[in-house]
Amino acid sequence: MLFGRRVPFLSHIFTLVGFVVTVLTVAVTNVRAATPTKVVISFAILSEREAALFVARDQGFFRKQGLDVELVYVANAPVALASLAHGDSQMNTGSPSGPILGAMAGGLDVAFVAGLVNKLTGTIVSTAEIKSPADLKGKTIGVTSIGGGNWAFTMLALEHWGLDVKRDKITIRVIGSDSVRAQAITTGAIDATQLSAYSYAVALKRQGATILADMRDWGVPYQGTTVLARRSFVSQSPDVAEKVLTALVESIAFIQDPANKPAVLKSLAKALRLAKVEEAADGYDIVRTVYERRIFPTPDGIRNIIRLLGASNEKIRGLKAEDLIDDRTVKRMEQKGLFQPIAK
Fold first, then answer.
1. Tens-digit pLDDT profile for residues 23-80
2. H helices present in the chain, as ranges
3. In terms of pTM, does the model score above 0.85?
4. Do 36-119+221-335 and 123-218 come out as alike in CATH topology?
5. Which fold has domain 36-119+221-335?
6. Where are the chain's structural domains?
7. What are the residues whose beta carbons fall under 8 Å from the beta carbon of 33, sequence distance 6 or more?
8. Residues with Cβ < 8 Å from 14, sequence gap 6 or more?
9. Does domain 123-218 have CATH number 3.40.50.300?
C-alpha cells in the first residue's frame, strides 16, 4: 500500500524535473540565439573603398544578421595573414599583394571569397611641377611597401602609361600610408604617389597638386577590394560567412541610394578621421560608382596581379586565379536573390 503511493509521487517528481530541464534547455538555447556571433574583420586601407565596412557597422547591418563585428585596421599584410591563420580574425579586406599571393603559393588556405571593387581605383597625384605622366621620368614615387597593394596599383599605372621603372630611372620609395604619402607630396619628399583615399587627393588638388589620373576611368580589371577568408572557416561556419557578406551587400545598396548620403558621409568622416563631414563629399560621390552589387571575385583582376608579381617570383607565377577563389558563399547568395537591386 505504502509502496503503491510512492509510485505516483515519484512519477510527479520525475515529470517536474523533466519540465524544469526542458525549460532550462529552451532558455539556454534562446540566450545563445540572442547572443551575437563575434567576428573580427581586419582591413588594410583607410579609404572610401572600405565604406561598406564602416556603414555596415554604423547602420547596424552586421547586428541585423546576428553578428558582433569588430573592425581592426591592419596595414601590414603579413600581420593580417597571421591573424587569419591563428583565428584571431575571420576575414580581411584589401587588395591582393605580394605577401598574400606568397602565402597562398606557400599553402595557406586563404581564398578570395568576394570582390567588392573589381577594377583599379584611386588617383595618381603629383607635385605641381609635374604636368603629365612623361614628367615622372627620373622622379620619386612613394608607396606604402614594396609588393603591397598600393605598390601594385602604382606599377599597373606606370605600365598603363608605357613607363618602366628601370629604363625611365624612376625611384620607388617606401613612405607609408595614404595620409603619410599625401603629406610627403606637400613637403616635396616625393614627386608623386597613388592615393586610394579620394578625400586626400581632392585636398592636395586644392593646394595646387596635379591629379595625373583617376584610375577608375581606365576600366582595368583588378581585385581592388576583396574579402579574404580561410577556406576552413567558410567550410566550418558557412552561415557566418554568408551573414557577413549579406550585411556588406546591404551596406553597398545603402551607400548607392542618394537618400542616404548624410549618413554615409558621417561614417566616412568618422572612419577617415576627417575634420569636417563635408570633406568626405567628393569621396562619397566616387565610391558610389565603384562598388559591385554582384560581389563575385574577378579572375581577370587576380590574373593581373599574378602577372605583375610573378615576373620576379616563380611560385606566384605558377598560381592560377581560379584556384585562389572560393565563391561558394556568393553563389549561394545569388541563388537566394540577394544581389537583386533593392526596390525603391
1. 455 444 444 456 899 999 999 888 888 999 999 999 999 999 999 999 999 988 889 9
2. 2-34, 51-58, 61-64, 77-85, 98-105, 149-160, 178-187, 198-206, 231-236, 238-256, 261-271, 281-290, 299-310, 314-317, 328-335
3. no
4. yes
5. D-Maltodextrin-Binding Protein; domain 2 (3.40.190)
6. 36-119+221-335, 123-218
7. none
8. none
9. no
